[in-house]
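Ticket opened by: R.M.
Priority: normal
Category: complex prediction / small molecule

The reporter submitted a protein together with (R)-mevalonate and asked that the result be attached to this ticket for the collaborator who will pick it up next week. Submitted input follows.
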Amino acid sequence: MKTPVEGFSKLSKAEKIDWIANQCTTNPEATKKLLERYWNPDSQVQKLHDEFIENTLTNYYLPFAVAPNFLINGEFYAVPMAIEESSVVAAASKAAKFWLDKGGFKTTILGTEKVGQVHFMYKGNPKKLQEFFKKIHPNLLSSVASITQNMEKRGGGINAIELRDCTHKISGYYQLHCTFETLDAMGANFINSCLEQFAKTLKEQAKGHPDFSEEEKNIEVVMSILSNYVPNCLVRAEVECPVEQLVIKDISPEEFAQKFVQAVNIANVEPYRAVTHNKGIMNGIDAVVLATGNDFRAVEAGVHAYAAKNGSYFSLTHASIENDIFKFWIEIPLALGTVGGLTSLHPLVKLALEILQNPSAKKLMQIVAVAGLAQNFAAIKSLVTTGIQKGHMKMHLLNMLNQMGATESEKAQLVHYFKHETVTNASVKEALEKLQRT
Ligand code: MEV
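Result attached by the on-call engineer:
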């Protein structure tokens, strides 16, 4: 970019492309062609994507795949995943298959509570504020009646509004800490609309409250926003089997089970390992969250906060061996939606939900938690046996060959060749060059 631009968002799409190609790239014509190549040929579909965000130039593809053979609470699922990392879908599929004949995955919803807060400053007598809050509680609820009416008809709405004194953290700082049930919606708009109305009502009512001094009447609302920390919107997924059924190449079931539990225990006490351990879990979680049109940043933020809820960062999964039974489980907060947002807009999101038999938000929470557990199982299984690189590099082989410009026939021959050889950048380069010389 050579110079700042005024009113970029007001330019037409073609003008924006022109500007960016000329200002920021060395070959503007090639840039324009590349951007156009990724447009959807169906202009309606393209328009839909253009309007998701501001300043859209083109579409950014991620592979959309499925990991089949997941048995969850006795039902079969092919789980859609959108992700770029080569080994994730293969690992999920392998883990699904591994547990298929061992009873599959079991899941339980532990809670569905969402949270939002009005953060405000009040300079005055705390007791008077509490009395005031008690008095206006019905007004707060009635002020959002038009927003909550539909949600309430379906069985959701506001669970509770609590006044929290946070003056030990910041002088004068209080909250309305509110909890919600948003059913199949992720609920961000619903929650934020309720909170902004609560804030208005709070301020208005304070102004007219006869027991308040002039200073006390002047409540200052700092902000009103949902929280992505949802420790009570929680799901558990688990697998278990007799240790003897953990039949894995080149290692006894007992040794495998023990090493597996040790690996999980290490992640429970060692933050450097816990972060990578949980990153592997998020490989599975994010891929399904993204494919189903949910907000993976919200999920990531909430999950990692949950992993640190006891003051140090810990593993999201746990494993044990008791009476020769191997158990492996995850408890994870997941605020997801299967209505609203992208779910009825993005054609591939709609398809992903259809592939999952149009699940409720609770069902989706369970499927996503299973994807995380499966991913972690696959990662630890590799880590404590062959190491991660063998499988990872095999999956990455096609990316390397594409990068090296291999033809389809060369790729086919080398994929076959590397079934029994170690994949490294150097070994692939050498094998391709050798093939090209013959
Ligand atoms: C790579 O994306 C994820 C892993 O590093 C996870 C782990 O180490 O558990 C393989």
